[in-house]
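Folds abound. Consider this:
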Amino acid sequence: MATTRTAHTEWEGNLLEGRGVVSFDSSGIGQQPVSWPSRAEQANGRTSPEELIAAAHSSCFSMALAHGLAGAGNPPTKLETKADVTFQPGTGITGIHLTVRGEVPGLDEQGFQAAAEDAKKNCPVSQALTGTTITLTAELA
């Protein structure tokens, strides 16, 4: 069954001096402020589209990796995934780097690397971001 998730943003003002609020409608988890300086300079307590993409990518990748490992008979005890999304004003998103550290009993480093590469390639967020360079560092704890 397909699902649809919804968020919306209310923006006031121009790009450089304006500000907005992102509302997470489907989950009801609240709102987060967003602004150009939070995107192109320092976060200063506000989020950015790139941080939201990083959150989506790290969680999707973790789910895909957990599923793949369990399906191969090596369910993980713990996965810790970080996504770094690089934004260059005037150019856009220039790359995403995923870093994962996993506790997977009974699996060697080579097996973990292969599973992580497969998850990077096949998680739905990675697939939605084709055209963006996605790199990966994976290691067992």
